[in-house]
């Protein structure tokens, strides 16, 4: 049950939000914070609750109406053995890919495919601005565990990425992990097709942060 609950990046992000806030939140508020529809957030919360990672209590209210269901992170932390298993799996896959010829190119192509798949695309016959494209790339990173922010630079925009969920593995297998990450950004930008491109990703450019250099913004 715990493995299933932590296998989805959206559920991991919801759990992180609850762990970082002192107040109980309902599904609508959580969905807004992580960029999910309320019903989707409610479905993820159900899985987290069944796994014992989140507690759910009806809102205490005196006025008429159906009380909201409020969620909080459970007092017990996630099973460290399960988290260690995921880190081990990531290291196994990264080391296997790293031993093959031209691992960075293969890793980036894999990242591009997933970036195009994961990004939230606009409805048909609808265009988005370059600023909205940048905001969507930030949202995509935050949904999957990063703390991301945009920053103006002399030659375009930068996306500053902190709290990398892959940092433990990236420290050892930087060529693979950071190439996958660059591919994710490039795949997402190509799918949105507004002319914004990722020039390069600078791993560990600042203490606790990597920097993606964006052009065409």
The strand order across the widest sheet is 3-4-6-5
Order of helices and strands: HHHHEEHHHEEHHEE
Low-confidence stretches are none
Oligomeric state: single chain
3D shape: globular
Cα distance, first to last residue? 43 Å
For the largest beta-sheet, the strand count, sense and barrel status come to:
4 strands, antiparallel
Quantity of strands, as a count: 6
Please provide a brief summary of the model.
With 217 residues, this protein is an alpha+beta fold. Helices cover 52% and strands 19% of the residues.
What does this structure look like?
- It contains nine helices and six strands; from the N terminus they run ααααββαααββααββ.
- The chain has helices at 2-6, 9-20, 27-34, 38-50, 80-98, 103-118, 130-143, 167-172, 174-192, and strands at residues 54-58, 69-73, 147-153, 156-162, 197-206, 209-215.
- Helices cover 52% and strands 19% of the residues.
- Strand 3 and strand 4 (156-162) form a beta hairpin.
- With 217 residues, it is of the alpha+beta class.
- The N and C termini lie far apart (43 Å).
List keywords for this structure.
217 residues, two-stranded antiparallel sheet, 9 helices, alpha+beta, 19% strand, 6 strands
Chart the SSEs and their pairings:
Elements: H1 2-6, H2 9-20, H3 27-34, H4 38-50, E1 54-58, E2 69-73, H5 80-98, H6 103-118, H7 130-143, E3 147-153, E4 156-162, H8 167-172, H9 174-192, E5 197-206, E6 209-215
Antiparallel strand pairs: 1-2, 3-4, 4-6, 5-6
Helix pairs in contact: 2-3, 2-4, 3-4, 6-9
